[in-house]
Amino acid sequence: MASIAFSGVSKVFPDGTAAVDGLDLEVADGGFTVLVGPSGSGKSTALRMVAGLEEASSGTIRIADRVVNDVAPKDRDIAMVFQSYALYPHMSVADNMGFALKMQGAPAASRATRAGAVARRLGIGDLMARRPRALSGGQRQRVALGRAIVRQPQAFLMDEPLSNLDAKLRVEMRAYIARLHQELGTTTLYVTHDQTEAMTMGDRVAVMRDGRLEQVDAPQELYDRPANLFVAAFIGSPAMNLLRGRLEGGAVMLGGQSVEVASDATGDVVVGIRPEAVVIGGPLELEVLLVEALGSDLLVHFRTEASRVTVSDAFDGEDDAGLESRFTARLPPDLRVQVGDVLRLGVDPRRIHLFDPTTGLRL
């Protein structure tokens, strides 16, 4: 096993596009770090640079204590799992799983033994004679994982490996990969655009935007203490309510109504309130716009006079005038509520997040 480290790594493509900008990040030996961010954030490019499929424009990439910038992909001792599975269609499951070992010159008997052991661990031991076209999506993904595991590499690189699966299979495979990591303890760098996937799988999550690292931390810390407005809006489902307000004397004014906060500061702020931090009964009096029944709870959307802040405008000071200002709350499923009702709501002051409206940074 080995750590993975980016030191000031940038990638600029020939057309001038800066895909990764000064990335500093370390994946601990045996750790599971998830790179998450929207499309175009640079997460897959960063992964491909570790694999040697893209060349870094500047900076240093290390696997263990070895600088690998100029090391050929085949000599980096890593295994990659792709979104597309990348299985050889003319080969059986057994041959697909043992192909890398064959390229290393391993004897046929050894290849069969190692591939069989991994296949049994993955629950595909009875599929070894089949070809990929005869497998379901989940089975193909297990073969792709098995092909990586059988090599016993220093690190696994996984690029959106579950995005081709349906919702139920994604949940199953998330748990499967997390359990495999616990068993194998192999250093893993995992890329996804799905923040739920990131939060449930990684022991550390690195949030990227426009090629830059916004925050890296344990999943719960990202949720509890987002470093800026982008992380606050990106992490959590449904998304955090972000509203413009003004701090005055231990309270924040939100469109003519005030809520107590754990701060003595004064001035304009962006207030962040997660839907699950809202309770029935309190100082906010809001009209119901929409009710979504999810079974386990209700998502209730309210009209608010406070200006809403979106991630795209959070750093340039402009409101999204085209969107109605809403406030979302996650409430108990037995609550009897309908459109047009007015409810009184409260929020624990300790669960209110405050951000600088100019820089977007946490206060």
Beta fraction? 25-35%
Total strand segments = 19
Largest sheet: 6 strands, mixed
End-to-end separation: 39 Å
- Uncertain spans, ≥5 residues at pLDDT below 50? 313-322
Strand order of the largest sheet: 6-7-8-3-9-10
Series of secondary-structure elements, N-terminal to C-terminal:
EEEHEEEHHHEHEHEEHHEEEEEEEEE
Shape: elongated
Counting helices, strands and paired strands, the structural category is alpha+beta
Q: Gyration radius, to the nearest Å?
A: 24 Å
Helix tally equals 8
**Mean of pLDDT:** 91
Helix amount, in percent? Answer: 10-25%
Please render the helix and strand layout as text.
Blueprint (H helix, E strand, L loop, with lengths): L3 E9 L5 E10 L4 E5 L6 H9 L6 E6 L2 E2 L10 E4 L11 H11 L4 H15 L14 H13 L5 E5 L7 H18 L2 E6 L2 H7 L2 E6 L2 E6 L1 H6 L4 H6 L6 E8 L2 E4 L2 E4 L6 E7 L4 E16 L4 E6 L22 E6 L10 E6 L4 E4 L8
Parallel strand pairs: 3-8, 3-9, 6-7, 7-8
Antiparallel strand pairs: 1-2, 1-4, 4-5, 9-10, 11-12, 11-14, 12-13, 14-19, 15-16, 15-18, 16-17
Describe the structure in your own words.
The chain is of the alpha+beta class. The chain has 8 helices and 19 strands. It has helices at residues 43-51, 93-103, 108-122, 137-149, 167-184, 195-201, 219-224, 229-234, and strands at 4-12, 18-27, 32-36, 58-63, 66-67, 78-81, 155-159, 187-192, 204-209, 212-217, 241-248, 251-254, 257-260, 267-273, 278-293, 298-303, 326-331, 342-347, 352-355. A hairpin with a 2-residue loop joins strand 9 (204-209) and strand 10 (212-217).
Main features:
363 residues; alpha+beta; six-stranded mixed β-sheet; 8 helices; 23% helix; elongated
